[in-house]
Here is the input.
Amino acid sequence: MTSKTRYFVIASLLVIGVGLGTGLVAYYVGFPAGAFAARGGPAELEYVPRDAAVIAYADVRDVMTSELRQRLRSALPMPENGQRELEEKTGINIESDIDRIVACLYPGLEGTNHGGMVLARGRFDEGKIETLMREHGAHVEDYKTKRLIVADDSNGRSGPFALAFVEPGFVALGSAAVVRTSIDLHQAGNNPQAGIESVTGNEELMNLVRSLETGNAWAVGRFDALTSRAHLPETVANQIPAITWFSVSAHINGGVRGVLRADARDEEAANNLRDVVRGFLALGKLQAGSRPEIQAMMQSLELGGTGKTVALSFDVPLQVFDLLDGLKKGLQQPQLH
Amino acid sequence: MNRAATKTPSVLASAMRIFDLSLGQMLWSRRSVFLGLVLGGPVLLAAAVRIIVELYARGFRINGATATGSTVFGLMMWLLYIRFIVPILGVFFGTSLIADEVEDKTITYLFTRPIPRSAVLLGKYLAYVACTVLLVLPSVILVFFLIVPMGGSSIAGEFPALLTDLAMLVLGLIAYGAVFALVGTRLKRPLIIGLVFAFGWEPAVLFFPGYLRRLTVAYYLQALVKHEMPSDSAASVLLQLFHEVPSVAASLFGLAVIVGLALWGAGRAVENREYVLEQ
Here is the structure.
């Protein structure tokens, strides 16, 4: 073997060795996609208690000003009563006052059906909101230097509701217990030894969150949290594939681009799920026919993922939403006669 | 005469000598330089994608839809490595194991040595496996580290799939090399026949129902791929619909049978064939 050949073999084996070694360390030590990757996710996750079953995020401003939203508004003018009512009662205009929200869900919290919280950043009229809640029977408590506006549970199922202005322009509202923990996290920071830990310490969930950051709206969570809230009949529930985690990420602007992802219990369950999705995809693609806008959408559907993960990426172009406009006109036509 | 001097070395010892001689020849041949460029292509592509995504984009898009790094890596594995690079390496190197020596009229020097003819083939085949593995695996590993961390997939999460991919690619190179070694030793114009087999017969026969697809390497190899088959064309959609996947054990057994039979057939051909060198 010549020295040139020997050097090549050594260099090649070095690349293989370093690559496999790095991968092995990552696999066993568990450093994220890079040891170079940031914590990931919006900063508000620091104030979300650890045991969240579902987390959702939306860049409200981005979504509200998107071309898609404008198109949908003109195609299907939605009644603005609810939006106006919320503005009158709280002073919050969803379109202009809220920049982004993070929501989380805690099933079975404190013996209730569920608990949850929404963290919103934006511009809020604190006095108006407090007055309104007081008018509806809420009372104000001091909790660790923060004013906590608490409304008792009227139906006795979901527990007391609370709202707190954690920082200027940053409000937490939802189940009182979750909001209190959120304030704890804001005051004391992440402190697992003291039993106060944010969801950023849940590496499994954060790995999923990091994979969703390309979207301006996303949700991630345990699949059982969804099915338990859906109250499905037993026969239907038994047919649902064994999924542990689900996530959906979308980028909404001139259309909707995104990825749906499900982590199955094992590879067999993932293969079963893939088979089902693959069948529907193939059928859909063959049935797309001569509608170019539908064809483009169907062609964008891409099944992916390895092992226990099943991922489906999609791109719904703006033109597809024009169909809604056509549908609306079609529905209106008979009324003209 | 000295007894040690007349003793014929074993097939394995002879094969290792030929391996040592052939590895350097293969690595620095014009063919390897060309295929090195072919293998550098995916790495350059991955690097370009990574730079563009880091600097300008907010994630991968396939057909306009956002995709994870793992999905993109899976697509690259299917479209670049499994469907193109592994078969083409098998065709170019496998068919030329003996054919190159015939063409260069140097086969006589090897066959007149006191070693079994089949050892020449075996040594060259092992050199092919080492050469292609040393070219392909670093390329795949570099692509993996460039592509997977983007779009949120984690190296830790995808590492087991990488190990499966590397093992599958090595098996593919071994199997395709053996098949095309047989083609190279038995048939005239082995390169053309090899190309027709790899890019004509194999993709086409996978559409046919029945047992015909079992006469391909791709049928067994694709069953070992963990990544989802891309649906980039109507043909791929049909292939997905009629995709029959044998078990891992059946695939490994099938590949072992193919390699065993092909190498045995190639060895027999080399042992028995009279090579007439054109003047």
Q: What stands out?
A: Chain B touches chain A through 54 residues (CB under 8 Å). Chain B has twelve helices and two strands. Residues 155-186 of chain B form the longest helix (32 residues).
